[in-house]
Amino acid sequence: MRIMLSPLARTKLERLCDSKWPAEVGGELLGKNVDGDLFVFDVFAVPNVSSSPSVQYLAYEEAKYFLPLVLKMTGLDHVGSFHSHPNSTVPSEKDMRSCPGFHLWLIHQKTGYHTFVAAKNYVHVEVELLNEAASVQSCMFRGDQFFFGDLHVNEFGKVAGDATSLILLKLPEKTRVAYIAVLKCGNGDRTVELKKVSEYLGVSNKTLRKWLRSAEDLVELRRGFVRLKT
Fold this sequence. Notes:
By secondary structure, the chain is α+β, with helices and mostly antiparallel strands. The protein has helices at residues 7-20, 67-74, 93-97, 132-141, 163-168, 173-186, 194-201, 205-212; strands at 3-5, 26-34, 37-46, 77-85, 102-108, 114-120, 123-125, 127-129, 152-153, 159-160, 191-193, 219-222, 225-228. It is built from eight helices and 13 strands. The strands form three sheets. It has an eight-stranded mixed β-sheet. Strands 11-13-12 form a three-stranded antiparallel β-sheet. Strands 9-10 form a two-stranded antiparallel ribbon. The N and C termini lie far apart (41 Å).
């Protein structure tokens, strides 16, 4: 079995660790099992409600009611769980035994150095980092592999996140794919040529326009171009 972590999921995990340091963070891993290989495409962060957050991760119990919603919206599967060790300690035997199935540990320091340690059914497995271009390309061509930027469960048990992610959460899968493609092809520019995006996705301009019409709160369609509103 090979464990492959997408660069977008990796970035999200590292950012989460750094933002909450020195507290431990954790949550669920979303992805796909393909021919015995495990692909982690996204993560669903769950608040740590431990009274000693710097030495223990205790997941917010009510978050389990929101995971099915996220899985349905993303089209991904629940493939495992994760939590961090901000004091740079490696998982102990007890730690390993308490985490059945697939579990990922993030060993990190305040300086931002991150190491990934994983186990499947209590047996250590190596983690491979996917090539970014291949990962993003896969995301673009499969509507079920969309990454939510900051989606999480807040302290009140509600699904929260940045405004754009919450809008995308309600949109059709193809619209989400098209929007992310616009971001990718624009590379920071707010106005992007439609032809460039349609060629990237392998669809016609007409199809791309159809997909993007549902995202009128996020984009403005012009003749031959699409402009980001946010």
